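User: Hey, quick favor. My workstation is busy. Could you predict this chain's structure for me?
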Amino acid sequence: MEEKLYFYYTNDLHSDFDQWPRVVTYLKESRELRSKRGEVNWTIDIGDHVDRSHSITEASMGRANVKLLNEAGYDLVTIGNNEGITISHQDLYHLYDEAAFKVICANLHSTDNIQPPWLRPTVKIETDNGVKIGMIGLTAPFNAFYELLNWHVSSEIEILDKYVKELEQSVDIIIVMSHLGITVDQEIARRYDAVDVIIGGHTHHLLRSGEYVNNAVITAAGKHCAYIGEVILTWDHEQKKLVKKEAYTTDITHLEKDDVTEQTLHAMQKEADSLLGETVVQIDSPMEVNWYADTPIMQDLTNTVKEWTKADAAMLNNGLLLDSIPAGIVTYKDIHRICPHPINPVVVDLKGNELIEVIRASLTKEFMQRELKGFGFRGKVLGRMMFAGLDVEVAFHKNGEEYVKRVLLENGQPIDPEHTYYVATADTFTFGRLLPEVAKSDSKHYFVPEFLRDLLAQTLRAKFPTN
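Assistant: No problem, here it is.
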């Protein structure tokens, strides 16, 4: 006798709640069909469901996301870096207190040795016919952030060496819920013959029909739940083994939205608007934002970041502010709308010659016009870089292109090419190759859990003090 096991999964929603009612529609219809046929199924999320760029998530610190997962009937969830490092230790500790599903993450540990009661390293599930499945959850090891928040994320290899051996003795099938990215997933598949399925995320890769590596099928459904994934496993009870592993993703962007979920989100939005409606300041005239020109509010914010981090200099890109600040009452909701990014300040060590190279690169047309999605950035383009503690003198070539003529410290002294400077900026630039010298700096000091928008609020209060 053969038995089919069905797993539906989502990954990397990033609080794209406009899409979420379609997710619910698809899951309801699919699970209803399986139930009518008597086919066992589970629903799974692979992390980064939470993203504080959305006001509902911001106002609830992710608890609204957990409620949505509960109401959608999820069975198993692991956490992503957006759940793990964008909220305080206490907020994460209590994030899943009301979860109706099981939270699995084997490599996350509280450094105070008091683990959240909801946190499980592995979970075993079983079909009515006795097929046993072992689930392992793993999240990406952003320990430069996690350890500042009193968490630690262990190496996935260290964890898998332990738990794969344990599960091999007690289950028939091993599934890894991996918020680690496609490259790591492929390495896990090559390294562990006993792993049957890796359901992935984090790097927003879309595998339409799965990828087969060694004995495992690897799958992932892109980002923002434009797709939902499905894994189908066929177990032969006579041979006592898996005889088929399939993985598919389905585009759900055309589906009707679930009415009940729409109503829930509408109510959540009203509550979020109320919670974020507190007045921060009142201003008499609008504060304009221009992504490609020096703007006073961005200069003020850059100055605040320099002073707050006690750095020698600071640099922030204009694209961090998505819109101008209107005259009148400015609320936390306004600040969140204008600066939605889950981006922390960071101070990096740069030699003088590296700092000059970073400044030159940041003032090129290519850099300013670069469209970016990811690394915490939720805007459109990077925009022009603003500086504090530095006097950057520019000039123009005959073709109109701007170039850096010279860079001085605010006291008028030239930059010493061999001297080490402490430079504050957005943590976005410590990832990837946007500004290689920043990303490669041997010393990075992140400031958590404060986001740049918290410093924007501080800047506005200082600029417009109440009487």
